[in-house]
Amino acid sequence: MTASASDRFLRTGVFLAPFHALDENPTLAIERDLELVEHLDRLNYHEAWIGEHHSGGFEIIACPEMFIAAAAQRTRTIRLGTGVVSLPYHHPFTLSSRMMQLDHMTRGRAMFGVGPGSLIYDAEKIGLKAADQRRRMAESLDCIVELMHGKVVNKKTDWFTLNQAQLQLQSYSHPAMEMAVACSRSPVGAVASGKHGIGMISIGGTNDEALVAHAKNWSIHEEAAAGAGIKPDRSKWRITTFAHVAETREKARADMAYGLANFAKYFTDVATFPIIPAGIKDPVDYLIDNGVAAIGTPDDCIRHFERLWQGSAGGFGAVLLLAHNWADWEATKRSYELMARYVHPHFQRKSNHLRHTSYDDATAKHATAGAESAAAVLGEIERYNTAKGIKPVGKAW
């Protein structure tokens, strides 16, 4: 059942690959990513998911757990997830052990996001065939879920062995560390997340076709959960999208001159699919008109998020902004602030509703209540003057 506008609560966050242009100082770029998470924490964003990539030159965080450990020391409340760890690249026992340590170090703020690995160049460099990635993710996840719940696991595959394996730490989070599976057009992530009753992160765009695919994958998630005797929970479903806002549409569009071209070139040259097809004259128009991104004012962003909500065919739990660096640092920070101030309240139980009700109530009573208050004040002045023998000399104003 779709939540009404007055009771729905859409959590907010970022999916931080990250994307950094090739001419930018990598040390400072990583530091700026940490500063971004600090900024989001101050603005009361709920989540930040950090990616794992090892090639291509643009997405330069190789170890999300390391980044999360540092970010946790610099933030207060924002939750920090691996977005995502590529399971075929790691032995499930040692990976689970590291994540359990992170659960303790972050006092339960860390989340365990997993996937098969998105960059084929990473897999190629370690001799992993693309055809094996999703199978290996499923094999690993089956074991990891058991390990993260403190169970003893025995398993032998063509790429790992678990022999009476059991983690030495019990989870800090209760009953266990939150987990999620990345899901694009393939149903593999939907099946895996549903089977284990964990979260699903939908990636791969938000045009009309993509929204239909995301909703279909959630249906697959529900079917897999039902088969496992698990009640599906839409609050565990996250959808990623693009957005940049400014005070005016003109300013938001002008901000794109900073980094959109580099971003689009990377997705054309290296990444899995081009974000902007060849031959597009105005990339900003294309992104907006096709529902890929909100580029404009907070009101434009509200309409974009509302479209995602309707396209989910029942609602979802969190919207994650794919951090993109299309604008310079100051404009980027301002965009996140404007969204926090003017977009988020619309989707978080209409959090200004009671304020408006109170304001309207006071406005309706202003004429009568104001007159009564003025009369009361005047009466007190007259009583005081009479007691002191002071003759009135006229109105105060």
Descriptive notes:
This protein is an alpha/beta fold and 397 residues long. 47% of the residues lie in helices and 15% in strands. It has a single domain (11-355), classed as TIM Barrel (Alpha-Beta Barrel), CATH 3.20.20.30. The chain has helices at 26-42, 64-74, 92-105, 120-125, 130-148, 188-196, 208-227, 249-255, 260-269, 283-289, 298-311, 329-347, 353-364, 366-388, and strands spanning 11-16, 47-50, 79-82, 85-86, 110-115, 153-156, 161-165, 179-183, 199-202, 237-245, 293-296, 318-322. Helix 2 runs parallel beside helix 3. The chain is globular. The protein starts with 10 loop residues before the first strand and ends in a 9-residue tail after the last helix.
Topology:
Layout: E1 11-16, H1 26-42, E2 47-50, H2 64-74, E3 79-82, E4 85-86, H3 92-105, E5 110-115, H4 120-125, H5 130-148, E6 153-156, E7 161-165, E8 179-183, H6 188-196, E9 199-202, H7 208-227, E10 237-245, H8 249-255, H9 260-269, H10 283-289, E11 293-296, H11 298-311, E12 318-322, H12 329-347, H13 353-364, H14 366-388
Parallel strand pairs: 1-2, 1-12, 2-3, 3-5, 4-5, 5-8, 8-9, 9-10, 10-11, 10-12
Antiparallel strand pairs: 6-7
Helix pairs in contact: 2-3, 3-5, 6-7, 11-12
